[in-house]
Design goal:
The chain is built from nine helices and no strands. It is mainly α.
Length: 215
């Protein structure tokens, strides 16, 4: 049981905490190997060796390698360490703020989150090409960001800041997609170069995008 017995409010036992820590270790190890070698190129034996555990222990927590991938998606996209919970606040309640401020925050925030969760993003992007479940998760993540941005842009059109004939969904899709492309192309840069190039990219992206959005 994860997190102790929530029905009684009792704190988790030492055994439960140990089991949770072991489960988390397996997930972290699997995520790293999936990002490095691909899902199909990684065996449970390799995961066990990297984690320093018996292979059978993996199947105690996860019946199949596929269920291990599902758990990663649930934990990192839907659970307590959810990837998307870092993105949603960037656009919620932003309707009354000017576009340059919000778009700069969105671009910087998305790039920072992509960089921080690089392994997860790589697993999603690569595995989505062949795995329907992962493809749905990846598309859902991009769609959610696009829909939130579309809603914000509609509010700025209504406020008269952006042109009335702005194709909202297309504009939002282009904005979000360009950030993902930048990340994929530059993700291997050292931290200092990443910061310099990502900051420059955000400035240029906002300038170019607003130039078209206001005409």
């Amino acid at each position: 049981m994860r997190g102790g017995d929530t029905s009684t409010g009792r704190p988790p036992t030492a055994r439960q905490l140990q089991a949770e820590a072991r489960r988390e270790q397996i997930l972290e190890t699997a995520l790293g190997l999936f990002a490095e070698r691909g899902f199909d190129g990684t065996s449970t034996r390799q995961i066990a060796k990297e984690a320093g555990i018996a292979e059978g222990l993996i199947f105690h927590y996860f019946p199949t390698k596929g269920s291990l991938l599902t758990a990663i998606l649930q934990d990192r996209l839907e659970g307590r360490r959810a990837f998307r919970t870092q993105l949603r606040p960037l656009l919620e309640d932003a309707g009354g703020k000017p576009a340059p401020e919000v778009l700069r925050g969105v671009a910087s925030g998305w790039l920072a989150t992509l960089r921080r969760d690089e392994e997860l993003v790589i697993v999603l992007f690569a595995t989505a090409q062949t795995n329907p479940e992962v493809r749905q998760a990846w598309q859902g993540l991009i769609r959610e960001g696009t829909e939130l941005l579309t809603g914000y842009l509609a509010a700025r059109v209504e406020a008269g800041e952006l042109r009335k004939d702005l194709p909202l969904e297309t504009a939002a899709t282009m904005f979000v997609s360009s950030l993902v492309i930048f990340f994929l192309a530059r993700r291997q840069l050292p931290d200092r170069e990443w910061r310099e190039q990502s900051e420059a990219y955000v400035r240029e992206l906002i300038s170019v995008w607003l130039d078209g959005g206001r005409r």
